[in-house]
Amino acid sequence: MTWVDGWPVVGGLPAEMPAPPWPLRPGAAPPVRDDFDLSDLAPRWISPRHRVAENCTTKERAGWLTLRAGGSSLDASDVTFLGRRQQHLSCRVRALIDPAEGRGGLAVRLDERHHYDIEAASGEVRVLARVGPLRTVVASRPAPAGPLVLGIEVAATEAVNDARTGPDSLAIGFEEPDGTFVALATLDGRYLSTETAGGFTGRVIGMYAAAGTVHFDWFDYRPLDG
Q1: Using omega within 30 degrees of 0 as the cis cutoff, is the peptide bond preceding 21 cis?
Q2: What is the reported pTM?
């Protein structure tokens, strides 16, 4: 741009532009595990609306993420939730939680009215589903005291036969001490899809606190596509 007689004049555009190098170099993939060893959270971690700093910190317990409850469940707009976007059609998520001081867990969240959760409290783990106006406990089971590995496995549907076929299924459960995954429930993913529930922001998978204080030692997100 140049100035002519006090007026801005935009320069001419070339008819041809140099092509970018191909193939484009992909950015570095984020690590599978976050051990919460850093004083600040990585940019991929997001929260709905706002994040209260004192309710979400890595500075209270070295090497752990500490979440303090805001709202009493993921149905509430002020719940303490920290998640990352689901970026792959199929993926596996694990997190080690210490619920000794509260109640919380893992969730796949579209919004306050559409989410699947696995929640741990002292001595119990349970799967909850919120779909529109309905909220129910899908399954529950006693759990040993102490830290527990919770898990969610998302598997894309290989063949979509009609509009009633979900884009995927979600196996929700926990790991036994020997690493065996115990699925307490397998739920249809279409109720957490924008085609069914509306919206446009997509799913977020992450950790939350529903009562008291819960601590997370690590969080794994592993893509399974291909």
Answers
A1: no
A2: 0.86
pLDDT digit string, tens, across residues 4-50: 888 988 887 777 877 777 776 667 778 999 999 999 999 999 999 88
CA distance 153 to 80: 23
Q: Which two tokens stand for residue 102?
A: 């509260």
- Is the separation of the CB atoms in 151 and 93 below 8 Å? yes
For the chain, strand residue ranges (E) read 2-4, 7-9, 33-34, 56-57, 65-68, 80-85, 91-98, 102-111, 114-121, 124-131, 134-142, 148-156, 168-175, 181-188, 204-223
* Residue 204: how many other CB atoms lie within 10 Å: 21
Task: Residue count of the chain, please give it.
Answer: 226
